[in-house]
Design goal:
mainly alpha
């Protein structure tokens, strides 16, 4: 789904559109494998581009991001077993939709205490997803090492020479 647009595509907002497509694509990927990883990347990119970049996006791009967030919501919420954390994550995803829509509006209108608090909530969820992704990597590493050790022992038994 991710479409690459070059800055030389010759229309205003090409770079913002490219970044918006990337964010929407990461949320779409969060509906499959590695939910925490892709959600973390999508939320990080959204937070980063909205809070630091001077890029704006069109309303259509903002709506694409919002639709992707909505479609990924159930998958992201499934990462949380604690009811309160799940509720906080749902609120943060809602704020991410608000932020995406605000990104398509006047830059001055988004710089409020409420807007900054919305960004903090999204950052909280991004950090949770990032930590869950790290835990997945750690568990995968240990299961691979365990598998490799098992295979090594089995191979050793197969090729043991009988004693004379």
């Amino acid at each position: 789904m991710y479409q690459t647009l070059k800055l030389s595509d010759g229309y205003p907002g090409a770079e913002g559109r490219q970044r918006a497509l990337y964010i929407a694509d990461e949320f779409d990927r969060a509906r499959g494998r590695d939910t925490a990883y892709h959600a973390s990347h999508a939320l990080h990119s959204l937070n980063d581009h909205v809070s630091k970049a001077q890029l704006t996006i069109c309303v259509q791009s903002a709506e694409e991001i919002a639709r992707s967030i909505e479609a990924a919501t159930a998958h992201v919420l499934s990462l949380f077993t604690d009811r309160l954390e799940r509720a906080r994550a749902a609120l943060a995803l809602n704020k991410a939709e608000v932020i995406a829509r605000r990104w398509s509006q006047d830059r001055e209108s988004g710089d409020t205490a409420v807007g900054r608090n919305d960004l903090r909530q999204v950052l909280w969820l991004r950090n949770c997803c990032h930590n869950l992704s790290l835990l997945d990597d750690i568990e995968e590493f240990h299961s691979m090492r365990s598998r490799d050790a098992r295979i090594g022992r089995q191979t050793e038994r197969l090729f043991r020479l009988p004693r004379d």
